[in-house]
Amino acid sequence: MASKTKVQYVCTECGFESAKWYGKCPGCNAWNTMEEEVRNTTITAKRIHSAVGMIAKPVGLHEIDSTEEQRYHTGLSELDRVLGGGLVKGSLVLISGDPGIGKSTILLQICQYMGNTLKILYVSGEESVKQIKLRASRLGVTSDNLSLMAETDIQAILEQVRVVKPDILIVDSIQTMNHTDIASSPGSITQVRECTNAIMHTAKDLEIPALVVGHVNKDGAI
User: Fold this and answer.
1) How far is the C-alpha of 20 from the C-alpha of 36, rounded, in Å?
2) Is residue 36 within 8 Å of 20, Cβ to Cβ?
3) Looking at 52-100, which runs of residues are DSSP E strands?
């Protein structure tokens, strides 16, 4: 089947999509925020068909055993409190804040504590593994269960997740991730949405917690 391209206009502020361009976004009323995106409809159709084939079967409430619930403590009491007692298997947690506020530092600190008993994969799209190693050394992070990966291709990352089988996945940051099926640039609303969705499905499928870093933009929005 020959692939076909489809042009969509997506608002960079709210994610509103339209087949035609608007000077003012109908979704959030922002001006000059509609950007053109070219999509491969054949790839999209294949992805939809694949997703339909993987629909989970309904389970009765009385059939679900909650006695085996296990939460991973992070070593930071306040973070554990916000998480309701710790990280839950299959969960997706967004760590957001202004650039340089200390998101990556907190994540490396909890890697030292959780790395005592758990296998962690730390993926960075902003720094090389050597840069992360230097920062980890300054923070006293020496865990042998911590693996580092510098990559922005989300498909390649999730393929390695299935190979390495970590207990916890950390992605820093979601704005740098790229889904090759999407024509827009990394950091766009469509890319962020698709990459986050791919991480979420993998985390639930493998029953591992995923921590995703998201920067706050100049307008104060995530």
Assistant:
1) 9
2) no
3) 71-72, 87-88, 92-97
pTM value? 0.78
In angstroms, the CA 192 to CA 174 distance is 6
Nearest to 1 by CA among 43, 30, 36: 43
Give tens-digit pLDDT for 20-35.
Answer: 899 999 888 889 888 8
The amino acid present at 167, given as its one-letter code, is D
Nearest-angstrom CA–CA distance, 32 and 1: 36
Contact of 120 with 87, CB cutoff 8 Å: no
Distance CA 196, CA 57 (A): 23
> Which pLDDT tens digit goes with each residue over 181-201?
887 888 888 899 999 999 999
218 contacts: CB under 8 Å, gap ≥ 6: none
Task: List strand residue ranges (DSSP E) for 98-206, in order.
Answer: 120-124, 146-150, 168-172
Closest CA to 166 of 200, 210, 201: 210
